[in-house]
Specification:
about 110 residues, mainly beta, 5-stranded antiparallel β-sheet, 3-stranded antiparallel β-sheet, 8 strands, about 0% helix, about 40% strand, globular
Length: about 110
């Protein structure tokens, strides 16, 4: 039995990072739809996620999974998500508030029991 989660685009193609393209400073990028997929062979229970923001005080990754806004900011401060059966996925949306100057990053992380 294995547990594994994967990000996929809306067509089912796996990816490892969101690409928001070029956008003007201090603007919100268009939302990017994605799937949060359980590619393991057992259900995930006690699924939780959190965001780690980059160093800019004005750049922010915003993510919603299964209708739940991810607000957790560390492994000790997570956002609970619905359980996910094997082979199924939650729909998600990601967008990025572009920093006023420079570049920035954000990371979506998840864990399960």
């Amino acid at each position: 039995m294995t547990k594994a989660l994967q990000l996929q685009d809306e067509n089912g193609t796996p990816f490892s990072s969101f690409s928001f393209g070029t956008a003007s400073p201090a603007t919100l990028t268009p939302p990017r739809a994605f799937r949060f997929v359980n590619i393991g062979d057992e259900p995930t229970v006690n699924l939780r996620a959190w965001l780690v923001q980059g160093g800019s005080p004005t750049g922010t990754l915003r993510v919603t999974v299964a209708g739940v806004a991810i607000t957790g900011t560390s492994e000790d401060d997570t956002t609970p998500l619905p359980d996910l059966p094997a082979g199924q996925w939650h729909e998600g949306i990601a967008e990025f508030l572009v920093p006023v100057s420079g570049t920035d990053t954000g990371r979506l992380l998840a864990d399960t029991d």
